[in-house]
Amino acid sequence: MPKNATAGVENNSQLQLYKKNKLWTKPFILVIIVVSILGIISLFTGVYDIWGQEDGRDMFFITRVPRTVALMLTGAAMAMSGLVMQLITQNRLVEPTTTGTMEWAGLGLLAVYLLFPAPSLVLRMTGAILFSFIGTMVFFLFLRKVKLRSSLIVPIIGLMLGAVISAVSTFMGLFFQMTQIIEGWFVGSFSAVQVGRYEYLWIIIIVTILIFMYASRLTLAGLGEDVATNLGVNYNRLILLANGLIAVAVGIVAAVIGNLPFLGLIVPNIVSMFRGDDLRSNLPWVCVIGMGTITLCDIISRTIIMPFEVPVSLILGTVGAVVFILILLRQRKSRRLR
């Protein structure tokens, strides 16, 4: 091939890579505008009349603003956790719900309630984070022992572990007469969010910054232990760091909001279909679309049977289950075409 042609191909590939990694593109700005509109709709959606009541302005800042902020932070946290887990496990069907991480967080909350009557939010968060980290590490230890690593085996292992932990939590709840705590945790909802009950969710911003700082190394870890080690990455230490960040994000959400299924599965898969698997360039997209997804589901949950409210976990679970099946069918179709 002539040198001029080779140089042209290289310049073209570099230009395409630059366009892919460029953040402030028209589609990304459009997504931000759509999510901002959803946030405004969330601020003014609800049964309480903030315009006609005397304390409407106070209620707006006590409940509506904290709820919308909590939606945005929670959506970013769960979508980001799913993206990191899918990358380091090399599996599209992995996220906190399909690995048992959320069930471990629920067990941590139950353990805190058993040890400390009427625990504070900090204690609940600590227990959820600690058990989330333990559960994620147990999942990865199981994964290392499994030689057959098909796309279905990995989430099946996680679902089985989650089912076992959920059974343990249910037994402990029945034995110690604390089933109400378990039931309240499984029904993830933002109805109780108000000033003084959501501020710890701001820690998620720190987690996002740390993940962005280690994005390149985490992308290398997604290539496998042997490749990452040959490229100079301390694979085991990086996996510990990733699991720790995931545990913090999931633990905070579990303690403040509750169980939010499939959010970490839907968003990263949608983004990866169009943008590939580069964590650094995909992370802003995943966070923003995660915000929009959960905000839209919460608006539906508040309006579908007004003046009553459906738990947002019900909407997420329904949508997530459909997307989960579609991903399975898509992977099956791609195998047939090979």
Description:
The two termini are 30 Å apart. α4 crosses α5. The protein is mainly alpha-helical and 338 residues long. The chain has a single domain, classed as ABC transporter involved in vitamin B12 uptake, BtuC (Orthogonal Bundle). It is 75% helix and 0% strand. Belongs to the binding-protein-dependent transport system permease family. FecCD subfamily. This is ABC transporter permease. InterPro entries: ABC_BtuC-like (IPR037294), ABC_transptr_permease_BtuC (IPR000522). Its main location: membrane.
Layout of secondary structure:
Elements: H1 3-21, H2 26-43, H3 56-89, H4 101-115, H5 121-145, H6 153-175, H7 179-186, H8 203-213, H9 215-221, H10 225-230, H11 235-256, H12 263-275, H13 279-303, H14 312-337
Features:
disordered N terminus; 338 residues; mainly alpha; 14 helices; ABC_BtuC-like; ABC transporter permease; ABC transporter involved in vitamin B12 uptake, BtuC; ABC_transptr_permease_BtuC; globular; membrane
In brief, what are we looking at here?
By secondary structure, the protein is mostly helical. It is 75% helix and 0% strand.
Mean pLDDT: 80
Structural class: mainly alpha
How helix-rich are the residues, as a percent range? Answer: over 70%
The CATH architecture term is: Orthogonal Bundle
> CATH superfamily, please?
ABC transporter involved in vitamin B12 uptake, BtuC
